[in-house]
Structure to design on (303 residues):
């Protein structure tokens, strides 16, 4: 994530747009080839896969995803979401982050006048945008890191997210997921792409020793599902410090300790995490050895 942010902030917009267009064309061509060869995944295939990797009825499951990494899926985002919903069942809860911002929080918040929970689209991929638009989905009212949920406890997971002045504290869906013994599925992405759950530790410990948040706080307007307006104050990440992240270097520790396992969903390398163990281990190893996403070997910054 840090490298991508650095590249984005130092590359002219027209070059970024040209690269994205080229990359999308290349990906679409590869998916079309898979379709022509009959290398196709269905909802039933995905349900079987999710069951095999350890998703069970009643799970509280938060999903980060890349549709194109899975391969050609008959039915697209709908098929993936249907398979996930059927896998967790009526007694489970499915959550997906769907921030309108895919770049630096600081750049985004400086230009944000009002976060509209209904109309601000997800910038985190086709699966998340399809999911948040489902009529039964409830979206948390946080301007930088909203999360949508479908399930019997959707209101619990999304309620009051905006009341903390950081996105990952005790009212956040990530923290609540950990406390409810939930799971996190990274389909075709990794901690470097989607390390939001790692930030829970930074907000959970007293006086986290690194300046991960920008010194200035920002006041923004929010428009809820009924069109009502409110105002909150929130912190955002310090981009200079964000550039020091080495999230994926934590993966060997998480796998060794049984916090995560590497699996596959279609063609996508995938990681399944125990959210509670993830938070507990991050707090433990931070306090014992100084391990963070910035210091994955426990070394001090600058060493």
């Amino acid at each position: 994530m840090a490298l991508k942010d650095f590249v984005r902030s130092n590359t002219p917009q027209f070059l970024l747009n040209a690269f994205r267009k080229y990359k999308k064309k290349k990906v679409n061509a590869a998916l079309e080839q898979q379709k022509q060869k009959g290398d196709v995944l269905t909802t039933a295939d995905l349900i079987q896969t999710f069951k095999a990797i350890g998703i069970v009825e009643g799970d509280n499951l938060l999903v980060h995803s890349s549709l194109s990494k899975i391969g050609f899926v008959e039915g697209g985002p709908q098929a993936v979401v249907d398979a996930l919903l059927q896998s967790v069942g009526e007694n489970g809860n499915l959550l997906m982050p769907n921030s309108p911002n895919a770049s630096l929080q600081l750049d985004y918040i400086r230009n944000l006048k009002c976060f509209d929970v209904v109309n601000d689209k997800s910038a985190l991929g086709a699966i998340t945008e399809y999911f948040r638009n489902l009529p039964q989905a409830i979206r948390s009212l946080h301007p930088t890191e909203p999360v949508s949920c479908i399930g019997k406890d959707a209101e619990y997971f999304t309620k009051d997210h905006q009341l903390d002045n950081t996105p990952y504290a005790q009212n956040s869906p990530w923290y609540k997921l950990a406390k409810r013994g939930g799971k996190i599925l990274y389909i075709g992405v990794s901690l470097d792409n989607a390390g939001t759950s790692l930030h829970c530790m930074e907000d959970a410990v007293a006086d986290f020793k690194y300046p991960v948040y920008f010194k200035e706080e920002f006041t923004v307007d929010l428009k809820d599902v009924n069109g009502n307006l409110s105002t909150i104050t929130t912190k955002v990440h310090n981009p200079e410090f964000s550039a020091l992240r080495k999230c994926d270097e934590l993966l060997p520790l998480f796998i060794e300790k049984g916090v995560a396992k590497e699996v596959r969903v279609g063609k996508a390398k995938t990681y399944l995490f125990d959210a509670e163990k993830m938070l507990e281990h991050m707090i433990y190893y931070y306090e014992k050895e100084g391990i963070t996403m910035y210091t994955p070997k426990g070394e001090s910054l600058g060493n």
The first strand starts at residue 40 and ends at 41. DSSP finds 13 helices and twelve strands in the chain.
